[in-house]
């Protein structure tokens, strides 16, 4: 099931592709990277065994022709000039490696290796996830102590058909040694919420470092006091529940990409259904998905988001200084004691509108109703230290900027 993480670097200066000694010297000069040995193999090109902060990896590097397929989604914002240069690029350099169970770490290390080798990158074509990554973003991510979001390890494509039908399916999880995920018979109204279900399930698999067993119950979201529990079902079995499907049928699965190691997400209505392994279509909860569901983020993912948000607070300040922008911040509020687990304090992460930035804190106004924190309501304003910030978002006239999108402010 596990595939290689095949990335193609498109450098700004194409002459670097003719100078292996130059990018090997760049690697050797990086304080986090230790080259163990270098070999040239006829079929694999340059094979480099190295360590990134003590973690061993083997990469193989070779030149290749470049043509960005129409199905590849630009993950980041590119200027008109950058798009033109990407379109004109006819060659690039493959940096290929295998991931182990530490998939998020491996992805981050691959970016760090690429950034060390080629300090002036136009873009990186991440083939498994079918994404085009900005060179500026790659450099910022590589130099960060915090790894990128797990969502970078995969993408979810939405294939539209007649009668508003949408087939959602992922790409990229196979390089993590996991099966791909799907939702059948979505539609334009619900596909964003269905995407979030796939994302939550995928995040948990990545953190779990192995795929969940088909039929295993996985909690993905909370709607009021109810829970959304999903499971993975083989696509051939799932199609029996969707006789109306015109997308994702056997006719659409004439290659290995969509016919092997891919599972459809379905749901358990209640604990009894879970015990009996009686799953139902996701569409049964469509009306409830409109009621502000809280999609699950694990403690470790929340900590990763918090770490990145705090690390990049200078960019948040930069965005806030532009009075045409609106900035919201997510604050981790201490829950009421009755919701603590094993007497351990818990936090509920809630959005506020930023009103003022102080030296080491923010003044912000609550924008949503808490579930587990009493004594505070929307419209209340308070002062919160930077350390309580777990995320932030800048609304600009040109789109939204998150801590992950801080490259756009450079």
Structural class comes to alpha+beta
How many structural domains can be distinguished in the coordinates?
3
Distance between the termini: 39 Å
Radius of gyration, CA atoms, in whole angstroms: 23 Å
**Residue-averaged pLDDT, rounded?**
93
Estimate the global geometry from the Cα principal axes: globular
Largest sheet: 8 strands, mixed
Number of strands: 21
Strand content: 25-35%
Strand order of the largest sheet: 2-3-4-6-1-7-8-5
Poorly predicted segments:
none
Count of helical regions? 10
Helix amount: 10-25%
Attribute tags:
410 residues; alpha+beta; 3 domains; 8-stranded mixed sheet; 7-stranded mixed sheet; globular
Describe the overall structure.
- The protein has three domains: 5-151, no CATH class; 154-295, no CATH class; 299-409, no CATH class.
- It has ten helices and 21 strands.
- The chain has helices spanning 20-29, 80-88, 103-117, 135-142, 191-208, 235-238, 256-259, 271-276, 299-311, 313-321, and strands at 5-11, 33-41, 45-52, 55-65, 73-74, 91-97, 121-126, 131-134, 155-160, 165-171, 180-187, 218-223, 226-234, 262-268, 294-295, 326-334, 347-357, 361-366, 381-385, 389-396, 399-401.
- The strands form three sheets. It has an eight-stranded mixed beta sheet with strand order 2-3-4-6-1-7-8-5, with helices on both faces. The protein has a seven-stranded mixed beta sheet with strand order 9-10-11-14-13-12-15. A six-stranded antiparallel beta sheet has the order 19-18-17-16-20-21.
- Helix 3 packs across helix 4 (135-142).
- The longest helix has 18 residues, at 191-208.
- It is globular, with a radius of gyration of 23 Å.
- The two termini are 39 Å apart.
